[in-house]
Design goal:
Elements (H helix, E strand, L loop, with lengths): L3 E5 L6 E5 L4 E5 L2 E4 L4 E4 L15 E3 H10 L8 E4 L14 E4 L2 H44 L4
Antiparallel strand pairs: 1-2, 3-4, 4-5, 5-6, 7-8
Length: 150
Amino acid sequence: MREAIRIADANSGLVKEVFGEAVAVPVRKGWFKVAAGYVMVKLPEDSPFRCMADKYGWVYEHRLVVAQALGRPLLSTEEVHHKTGSSKDDNRYPETLELCKSKSEHMVKHDLRKEVAELQKENRLLKWQVRQLREQQRVMLEVLRGAGIL
């Protein structure tokens, strides 16, 4: 169970309890950014997406953006994946956001991104090693030519 935190409501300035991350920073009226980098939006009472919000009417912006693009509220089992990884306030759909039907599908995307990052790191290392070997080969050929062996 997540612990409630107290934040200043960006609309009213009143302190309220919100379930989620530990720090909230007001961005503009009706918006704030939580510690993990996600932006939250205050929805009006009559919003068709209000069912996605917490009891105070706050919803994660990335979930709202995808729901609006699809023209329906997201199911509680559906998750939104940030393709950009670390940039959790870049909420453009479909450029940077992707709908996942389940938490397991979302985790697969994160695991794949980690694997790709590891492979890219390994690739950089291998390219550096190839450059070093080519340099050693060049030096050895110069030595052999200078000694008259080649």
